[in-house]
Amino acid sequence: MTTIAVPAWLPREPEPQVQESASAVLTEVRAAATAVSDVAEWARANGAPADFSGNAADAADHAVTAFAADTDAVSVALERGALAIDAFLTQMRQRRNEHDALTERRQRLNGDREDLLQRIETATEDQVEALQADAAALRQRFESYHQDLQAWRDRVEADEDSAIRAFAAVDELAEGLAAAQDSTRADTAALAAELRTLGTDTDAVNTWWSGLSQSQRNALLISDPDLVGNTNGIPTGDRDEANRSGVQRDIEYLLGLQASGEDLSASEQRWLDNAQSIEKAAQQVSDSKWEGLGVNAFVMAYQPHAFGGDGIAAVAYGDPDTADHTAVYVPGIMQDGTYIDENGSQALNLYEETVNSMLSEDPPREGAVSTIAWIGYDSPNFNPESMWPWDLGDSAGDVSHTVTEANAEAGGVALSQFVDGLNSTHTDGDQPHLTVIGHSYGSTTSAYAAAGGMDADSLVLIGSPGASEGVHHASDLNMPAGQVFVGAADNDPVSWLGGEDGVLPGSGDDSLGLGQDPAQNDFGATVFAVDDGEEFHGPGGLVDTGFKQNHVNYFDDTNPALANMADVVSGNAGAVVDTGGRTQEAHDYLYDWTGDEVKDHVVDPIVETYEDVRDGVGDAVDGAKDARDDLWPDRWP
Amino acid sequence: MAVSTTVKRMRTTLLLLALTTALSTMLTACGASDEAGSSSRERVEASTTERAQEAIPLVSKALGATGAKATARWQSCMAISWRYEAFASLTAAAGDTAAQLDAVRAALTGAGYADDTQVDGHVTATRNDTTVDVQPSPIRGKRIWTVTVQSSCADYDGDDLDRVENDEDRPLDGM
């Protein structure tokens, strides 16, 4: 009897226990470290109060100084802990990838083993020699696998030991105090000052950041999360980590105040709303509606106190630093940092439509996509929860900015800098294809950015009240030829406001409009098909249907606008059909609608009343009709 | 010159009249939204849920789907208004996508929905104030389709606004 030695079947190797979700621990440790760092900094800066002197003051000063040292020791311990966790998580990510490769290899080896066994089962004597050789080769491959598996296990163990040693090095106060005095400890104040001097030069920021050591970056993430998280040019992953720490720090602080029985002030409540909205924006990728996309969220901006508490916020779905196609969505009127989660939903819808559009091509097109909701400017908004006359005054003052372009102009500069940051942080050196999509007042903001030289590849303006002052033609927007796209629903009243002459020509201020209507045929953009929305009439129609439905549905699955925008974002602009645009002035839509309303709700009721009450007085009726016709000619006088 | 001035004045007068009309319309509309009240919100939730309970099984059957997961919650319309939305993802039987879309369309129109499709690769059907949208979503996996059932966008206030703003996913009743 001939024996052929076949290696034993390979069992499944357990995965590393540390999963991706463990990164939440890092965020928590960083948030705690930031909070302690803030306390330490306060304590260092505040000994005894200036008007407090004498022995008691000296004692207090001494106590506060000692407290500052102790707090700093805790801070540095947490800082090093965070660094160790970060390194460990990075290692575990690598180990999981290695584990996946080993698993594939194991399955392949087991398959080859089964194949060999079957061949042995049916072999004849003359095949034995060849089978012996095959079995020897397979044994060799199994042995090699065992060695690699053991080496992988050793690396996992070494990673764990390393993390444990790092934690153990600062788990006592004395060790923390010594670490705080370590001359190699990063001087975060100096680093933060250096970063600030780089300003808006995003390439310089990116180069500088890349030149820091991991421990320096980690220390800055803890000492200055707000700076790191909101500086354009810092890689998206690091901005995300910094901002998440800041968000968590704020939520814990504010909920802590509430838990201790304190009523939050109006500004604190607004602060909490900002923090919880961006937290929700990041977490909603796990909601039942979106979890199937398997996309990661990145918090790219979080400044809850900006613009009088309206806040700045930005969230990306998919990493823009590695994306082949990136879109920045700029919302318009009524939006602020407390609504970043809702605007994030629009970005997620666009993300899904874009990837689906690529996968539906024949053959399916590969490519990573990132869509970003960006509220980085002071969008005119009205606080519907205003309770007091002075609040209403503030809100009305803010929303009145809609009829001026000042916020859009300033926002355009901020948007352009944000886009610069995206170009600087992309791993290929520049964004391969970046689209900016402005909706409503955000379209005016985007147009300002484009006219000022924003470094984007495609521009989409939807529901636009005007393409900004000084822009008369698509060519004024500095996009590559054919890369300005416009969507405007016939029944979207905001899109009726654009026009070279402004909304109130002849009133003494011809600049009240927001610029040319980009949907005009002669503007030179590609005007794509959209759902024109329902016509509306009578009381409530303008707001309830025109504004609250027709103006806000461009990102709906049912609206051709979304599919067209997805084609632009994915670089498939050739699939976008140009409808030719409007041949009627935008103002004329408003004019016609208002004329009809005057007829339906002013003239006709009068006529009907006359007919009911003074039946037979035909002259008066005709007079009323004639008066309306005289008052309301077919076109603008 | 005199003509030009008169025309400008006329135009401004008309515009002001237009804006006054719009403003009065807005104020009236705000009053109307006040009337929305909790009964309106609850009515929208109930009617959308009822449509979803009807439409999702129809779509599922038309696609020969083997698994469905359905949830419902209030969603924002660009943070300006709100709508109730039921969402389901289904694993369809293997088949030709165009034929499957036709089958879905036939199932919905056969049940009294009006075809309102405007986007290739989707089926959109409406009934009263409810819209049903069905599409394959390859990003979610092979043969995965999504069904979205939505009410129209509308405004809410008071406790209703608080509810719609802070709503969370919940399983769709009866699915």
What does this structure look like?
The complex is a heterodimer of chains A (637) and B (175). Chain A is 54% helix and 7% strand. Chain A has 19 helices and 8 strands. The longest helix of chain A has 67 residues, at 55-121. Chain A is flat and about 120 Å long. Chain B has helices spanning 2-62, 97-110, 158-165, and strands at residues 67-77, 81-91, 114-115, 123-127, 130-136, 144-150, 170-171. With 175 residues, chain B is of the alpha+beta class. Helix content of chain B is 47%, strand content 26%. In chain B, strand 5 and strand 6 (144-150) form a beta hairpin. At the A-B interface, helix 12, helix 16, helix 17 and helix 18 of A face helix 1, strand 1, strand 2 and strand 5 of B.
What radius of gyration of chain A results from the CA coordinates?
32 Å
Give the N-terminus to C-terminus distance of chain A in angstroms.
109 Å
Q: Round the mean pLDDT of chain B to the nearest integer and report it.
A: 82
CATH class of the largest domain in chain A: Alpha Beta
Using brief descriptors, characterize the structure shown.
heterodimer, A: 637 residues, alpha/beta, Rossmann fold, 8-stranded mixed beta sheet, 54% helix, 7% strand, B: 175 residues, alpha+beta, TBP-like, 7-stranded antiparallel beta sheet, 3 helices, 7 strands, disordered N terminus
